[in-house]
Amino acid sequence: MGIVSWANSPWGQSVPLHVAWALIWVAIIAGFFFMVVHTIYVAVVSPKHKPRLSPAEVAATPERVPRHSLAARLFHWIMALSMFALLITAFLPKVGVKFDWVMYHWIAGLLLTVSVLFHIFHASFALDFWSIWPDKADLRDAKYRVMRFFGKPAPKPERFAKYPLENKLYHGAVMLAGLAVIGTGLFMLKRVDTPFFTRNPYLFSDFTWGAMYVLHGLAGVGFIALIMVHVYMGIRPEKLPITKSMIFGWMSRDFYLEEHDPRRWAVKGSAQKKRSLAASDAD
Ligand code: HEM
Predict the structure, then answer these.
(1) What is the CATH number of the domain that holds 161?
(2) Binning pLDDT at 50, 70 and 90, where does residue 46 land?
(3) How confident is the model at residue 283 (pLDDT cuts 50, 70, 90)?
(4) What is the distance in A from the centroid of ligand 1 to the CA of 118?
(5) Of 122, 165, 176, 238, which one's alpha carbon is 20 to 30 angstroms from that of 97?
(6) Is residue 263 in contact with ligand 1, taking CB distance under 6 Å?
(7) pLDDT single digits (tens) 6-26
(8) What span, in angstroms and rounded, lies between the C-alpha atoms of 172 and 137?
(9) For the chain, how many structural domains are there in total?
(10) Is 256's C-beta closer than 6 angstroms to any atom of ligand 1?
């Protein structure tokens, strides 16, 4: 099975048409495979004990730690809505549920595009832009975790900053797939009837259009597995506090201190907190 469907152009040239739709099932199986392997890993291998909280950190931390602003939460849920609409409209017709999907699809696509543009501005100017990119401490701790997993001596990894390394890597994959579907999808609007401009399927050569549809389809199929993994993580019992913070905006002090290092992710406006942590360091 190839990953691309090909066709012959009127000039006898072999051109890509779109991604092979069997990949939909490959992505679904990959998503389920990840869930099973991860569930077994958590049940059997991963450490269960909770770290002991330092009284100085507890004293310096508010009971509710703000995690996501209202704007960030609205972005997340609007993007989630558009993403589900895109997946449903794109793939149900490919697995036999026939309906007029194109208009709903590009409307959801434009909603995703606007929400991602908003997110880029918001993350660049209002949020801590670097909090979602891997840093040296992430890579060092990942190395320690792998060494400890294989029974080799290594120091205990630190608690996370705002986002663990795996979340940062996931964000990178979603970002690349998102930019690919948006970049190609905006051009593909020229192939369908919309109120914005006249349809022009001759804007690019057959080969270029085909390549664009293939990239759009590959990134789209990738989203099936990415979203399955994301939803699975969101409903895992130990991750529920994170999901709740995406609804209510805050997480509990205990969860924050168990998972996050206040030195790497400081609670906003806590000068008093920093002072008392510095004092506890000096002890
Ligand atoms: C998760 C996001 C998305 C997924 C899973 C997805 C999936 C797909 C798939 C599978 C197709 C059919 C392609 C083919 O026949 O080869 C398609 C077509 C299309 N998509 Fe998307 N897409 C996404 C995002 C977007 C975005 C952001 C836009 C617009 C900004 C968009 C606009 C379009 C358009 C205009 C078509 C062409 C319909 C046609 O030629 O009949 N899509 N999409």
Answers:
(1) 1.20.950.20
(2) confident
(3) very low
(4) 21
(5) 176
(6) no
(7) 999 888 899 999 999 999 999
(8) 18
(9) 1
(10) no
State whether the beta carbon of 223 lies less than 6 angstroms from ligand 1: yes
Listed in sequence order, the DSSP H helices in 4-128 are 23-40, 55-59, 70-91, 102-125
What residue owns the CA closest to ligand 1's atom 32? 185
CA distances (Å), origin 201, targets 6, 15, 193, 196, 208: 18, 15, 11, 15, 11
- Measured in angstroms, how far is the CA atom of residue 54 from the centroid of ligand 1? 51
- Ligand 1 pocket member 113 (CB < 6 A): yes
In tens, the pLDDT along 101-122 reads 999 999 999 999 999 999 999 9
Q: Is the CB of 251 under 6 A from ligand 1?
A: no
Q: By residue range, what is the domain housing residue 198?
A: 4-282
Smallest CA-to-CA distance from 259 within 142, 161, 180 is with: 161
